[in-house]
Specification:
heterodimer; A: mainly alpha; 19 helices; globular; B: mainly alpha; Helix Hairpins; 83% helix; 0% strand; elongated
Chain lengths: 474, 110
């Protein structure tokens, strides 16, 4: 039986496996072994996490003073993050070798990021929130700059690092002001005394600062300006991870923080979220239209998708919570898939995709399904995710114009996603050289598997929603 | 001393840090300004911790006194980790461009 002395498997195992990968990097010369070691590690952690989800048993026992709060909802989210990471390793693991020689270390850093993801999915105090966000970000700074000779990678790393630590400073100021302003002198989310009626000035200031820094982390407008440069400059393999698992984990943390700590005074900060959401939707979608490079277009589209996920934070009801996890799964899987194909391309511009259908029909088909899912076309997971978000927003009965704006922006997003599909199927390639670096049969098979998962989730989203409530842990 | 003075000092330090980040163009100075922001937070945490402890004399539970001060140690550790990564990134950039000016980076935009 679960007691409050238990700790989650995923947090400890990811940290241990990160160290294992680092040691493997020091002692194993073979380039292939780290990938298999990483995949087996992820499988092990996934099994341990699911075992914990279904039986409530853990491998470790530490007194946490309730600083980490577990329920099936959080554990299911972590399982989804682990599954996405597994798909990512399987599809793109070999491309790590293209970035540099320290393959095992890159895997190790991703395991540390996963540790941060598990922390931000389960935190119950502002301290763990801060630590989780930092454990998630610091390895990412390194991964962004891992292409050491490339000036664009350097630029991206520096920009990401300066912006990231700046937003950390803002977040800390917010935490401190909340600590100083509430009489309970506690960092626990559920013990923050917000007072009755109007908020004390210090708590209000702290709340705004926290919201700004979380918007930074999830790249919501007007704090999104670092995103395109960083996503564009980072090695494409790591952009894929940054734009998928890390981003949705940031949203999960955002949701947890504002639901548990400030949920009771939602009307007082809802207007702020509405402004951020509307700005993110408009800016993300309109700037994505003008991009010529697919990588940069996906960076802007990730801002646009962030706008949709902000709807969950605006609505903050059950449909929003469920929808956010569904969105996390749908968006991460589609992003990982489309980036895995993009890594194999020689030319990242949209015209680089011309005539792909004739040369690589399987890749073309998979890319089309991923792009359709990102657009939100029915029968794909992306449609159900967007549907849940809009449903949650309508259920609040406020700000109906925001829902209309979101639907309009989804229509705009069809334009820039369909441009790629059009290039794939309806345009002829001008040069005779192949578009694609070599792809293996296993890669194609995995892409089709991913396509199948996306379509199954599009038809039966209950698979994830039921999972969230499968086993209500205390 | 009143808590007000600590708040004023910390907010002043924090503002200097924020203004520095937004206006200076040298990566190392920006980085120092970020550290300044973190240290303003540390100062404020200790001050608030004392304030809460003084308010709760009598019904005191030990965690009320120590929570805020413990947080300071975590911030220090994380800041140290950030320094090691951040300076490595700046050195890496200096090797390639022989400059730590962030304006140089904007010229790389396409």
């Amino acid at each position: 039986m679960r007691t409050d002395r238990d700790i989650m498997n995923a947090i400890i195992l990811t940290a241990i496996w990160g160290v294992v990968m680092m040691l493997a990097g020091a002692f194993i010369q073979n380039k292939r072994i780290p990938k298999y070691l990483a995949i087996s590690g992820i499988l092990l952690i996934l099994v341990a996490n699911c075992w914990e989800l279904y039986t409530g048993q853990t491998l470790f026992s530490v007194d946490l003073k309730d600083m980490i709060h577990l329920n099936s909802f959080n554990l299911a989210f972590i399982s989804i993050a682990l599954i996405c990471t597994l798909m990512y390793f399987l599809l793109s693991g070999r491309d790590f070798e293209k970035v540099g020689t320290h393959v095992a270390e890159y895997f190790a850093l991703i395991f540390f990021i996963l540790c941060g993801v598990s922390l931000v999915a389960t935190f119950n105090t502002l301290l763990i929130l801060f630590l989780g966000i930092e454990i998630m970000s610091i390895p990412l700074y390194i991964l962004t700059g891992s292409d050491k000779r490339n000036l664009k990678s350097n630029e991206a790393a520096l920009k990401y690092f300066l912006m990231g630590s700046f937003s950390t400073g803002i977040m800390l100021m917010g935490i401190v002001l909340i600590y100083g302003g509430n009489s309970s002198a506690s960092f626990y989310l559920n013990q923050i005394h917000l007072g009755v009626g109007k908020m004390p000035v210090m708590i209000a200031a702290g709340l705004v600062l926290l919201m700004i820094s979380m918007s930074f982390k999830v790249s919501a407008a007007p704090f999104h300006f670092w995103t395109p440069d960083v996503y564009d400059g980072a090695p494409t393999v790591f952009t894929a991870y940054m734009a998928s698992v890390v981003k949705v984990a940031g949203f999960f943390a955002f949701m947890r923080l504002f639901e548990n700590a400030f949920g009771t005074i939602q009307p007082q900060w809802q207007n702020l979220v509405v402004i951020i959401t509307a700005a993110t939707l408009v800016i993300g979608n309109f700037t994505a239209v003008f991009q010529q490079s697919v990588k940069r277009m996906l960076a802007y589209s990730s801002i646009a998708q962030a706008g949709f996920m902000m709807l969950a934070i605006f609505a903050m009801n059950l449909a929003a919570k469920e929808g956010l996890v569904l969105y996390a799964a749908a968006y991460s899987l589609a992003s990982i898939g489309i980036f895995a194909i993009l890594i194999k391309m020689k030319d990242y511009t949209i015209s680089g995709f011309n005539g792909l259908a004739k040369e690589q029909p399987v890749l073309a088909f998979a890319a089309t399904v991923f792009l359709l899912s990102l657009t939100g076309i029915p029968l794909t997971a992306g449609f159900q995710a967007k549907f849940y978000m809009l449903l949650a927003a309508i259920n609040t009965h406020h700000f109906v114009w925001l829902v209309i704006l979101a639907v309009g922006c989804a229509a705009i997003s069809a334009y820039y996603y369909f441009r790629v599909i059009q290039a794939i199927y309806f345009k002829e390639s001008t040069d005779t050289e192949p578009h694609i670096w070599d792809v293996t049969l296993a890669f194609k098979f995995l892409l089709l598997l991913l396509v199948a998962v996306i379509i199954i989730l599009g038809v039966k989203p209950e698979l994830i929603i039921d999972w969230l409530h499968y086993f209500p842990l205390p | 001393m009143e808590i007000k003075w600590y708040i004023d000092l910390a907010v002043a330090l924090f503002s200097i840090g924020v203004i520095g980040v937004l206006t200076r163009r040298n990566a190392i100075i920006i980085f120092m300004c970020i550290e300044l922001m973190l240290n303003a937070v540390n100062l404020l945490l200790v001050a608030f911790s004392k304030m809460h402890a003084a308010a709760e004399v009598g019904s005191i539970s030990p965690s009320v006194v120590s929570d805020g001060q413990l947080f300071v140690f975590f911030i220090m550790v994380v800041a140290a980790a950030e320094v090691s990564v951040g300076l490595a990134i700046i050195v890496m950039m200096y090797r390639n461009t022989h400059s730590t000016d962030v304006n140089f980076l904007n010229r790389l935009k396409h």
